[in-house]
Automatic annotation (TrEMBL):
<feature type="transmembrane region" description="Helical">
    <location>
        <begin position="18"/>
        <end position="37"/>
    </location>
</feature>
<protein>
    <recommendedName>
        <fullName>WD40 repeat domain-containing protein</fullName>
    </recommendedName>
</protein>
<keyword id="KW-0812">Transmembrane</keyword>
<keyword id="KW-0472">Membrane</keyword>
<feature type="region of interest" description="Disordered">
    <location>
        <begin position="48"/>
        <end position="68"/>
    </location>
</feature>
<keyword id="KW-1133">Transmembrane helix</keyword>
């Protein structure tokens, strides 16, 4: 899912109230889930020199898998080279008499059932190939990162961290994990009920990041303060970020990392050691996402959000196709794209779901059931190469 889309959706929903009954039910379900997962702890494998990761499937499957009956989905959703490897549901919970916060409940793909399984982790990310997942254990932030074998549901290793982290993402080659560190929880809301909103002061508690080499068993920490908030009248037009959550991501080739911005361009790049670098030549990204905007064969480029969307020729910039969808998310293959479609004639932009659309827009397959994306408790997908 695009890096910033969830945050933007959360901001839109920040003032939508959640009844006390829903909160109590959610707490009871969370306790029951925790007890269930703790009842029979799985054995932990702790190789002294890292983890031997399961081999990625070769060739990778390319079939189309849909679930147009359930919200959230119960069966795997996939098309071509990409799959919905995980999803999360966001709900609000009361902190005190003046504040609330957002909490994600994660569901991971389960190859044993062909569906998704709810987990007790505060964050999850599936590696390319859908064989293992990085998970963060804890309450809000985490000092413990695990590598979970999706096929056996056994934990391959746990890695203890000195600095608390709030997100974790796999490198494009599926061997390293980038975990962003925070000194305080970045999804707090100011106010209660209809008045609850993310902090508007532009302060973020990001402190740095870990690069974990899973095969070597190493976790290297680097300091990296958050990007500053807006600078009114800045003559240099420098990028800024007003969000409290500023998770880092990988460049397409895994040689650099990037931090999100609230400006154009939508990210800034760093070396793996945290030194600022120019935008990598030839790399084009889907806005607010780690997905490549360039087709696998290098010939076409996905356009930005907006109805209709467009796809252009990489060499000339000429429009080669327009699609009646809201957003283009990822290439399924050279001729088809996983996108966010809308119900009916798109009268309501929030009544939407995943679709597979052809470059010329003439063919469309519904992948997931439409949902009210502006509703508290809606699900947010994560797309991963198969």
């Amino acid at each position: 899912m695009p890096h910033d889309l969830a945050d933007r959706a959360l901001r839109r929903r920040a003032w939508r109230p959640v009844g006390a009954t829903v909160l109590v039910a959610a707490m009871i379900a969370a306790v029951a889930l925790f007890v269930t997962w703790q009842r029979e702890p799985e054995p932990v494998i702790r190789p002294a020199d890292g983890v031997t990761l399961p081999a990625r499937p070769s060739p990778a499957p390319t079939d189309v898998r849909t679930d147009t009956a359930d919200v959230p989905p119960k069966k795997l959703i996939a098309a071509g080279r990409m799959a919905v490897s995980a999803y999360y549901v966001v709900n609000r919970e009361v902190v005190d008499e003046k504040n609330e916060r957002l909490r994600r409940t994660w569901h991971l793909y389960d190859p044993r059932t062909g569906g998704y399984e709810r987990t007790p982790y505060v964050w999850a990310d599936v590696a390319p190939g859908l064989q293992v997942a990085a998970v963060l254990e804890g309450d809000l932030l985490s000092r413990r990162l695990g590598v979970l074998d999706l096929n056996t549901r056994r934990m391959l290793t746990w890695i203890d961290l000195e600095h608390p982290v709030g997100s974790a993402v796999w490198s494009p080659d599926g061997t390293r994990i980038l975990a962003t560190a925070y000194s305080s929880y970045p999804d707090d809301l100011v106010g209660r009920g209809e008045q609850a909103m993310p902090p508007m002061d532009g302060r973020s508690s990001r402190t740095g990041y870990y690069i974990v080499d899973v095969r070597e068993g190493t976790a290297d920490y680097h300091e990296l303060p958050p990007m500053a908030d807006s600078r009114p009248g800045d003559p240099e037009g420098r990028p800024f970020n007003v969000s409290s959550r500023q998770d880092l991501g990988w460049s397409l080739d895994g040689t650099m990392i990037y931090g999100p911005t609230s400006t154009r361009p939508d990210r800034v790049f760093f070396t793996l050691d945290g030194e600022a670098r120019p935008w990598p030549e030839g790399q084009r990204y889907v806005d607010h996402s780690s997905q490549s905007a360039t087709s696998p064969n290098g010939k076409l480029v996905l356009g930005g959000a907006g109805l209709p969307t467009k796809i252009t020729d990489a060499a000339t910039g000429a429009v080669v196709g327009r699609q009646k969808v809201l957003q283009l998310h990822a290439w399924a293959d050279d001729d088809n794209v996983i996108a966010l479609g809308c119900a009916g004639e798109c009268e309501n932009e929030f009544n939407s779901g995943l679709v597979l659309v052809s470059v010329d827009g003439s063919r469309m397959t519904q992948l997931s059931l439409n949902q009210d994306a502006n509703r508290n408790g809606s699900w947010h997908w994560v797309l991963t190469p198969r």
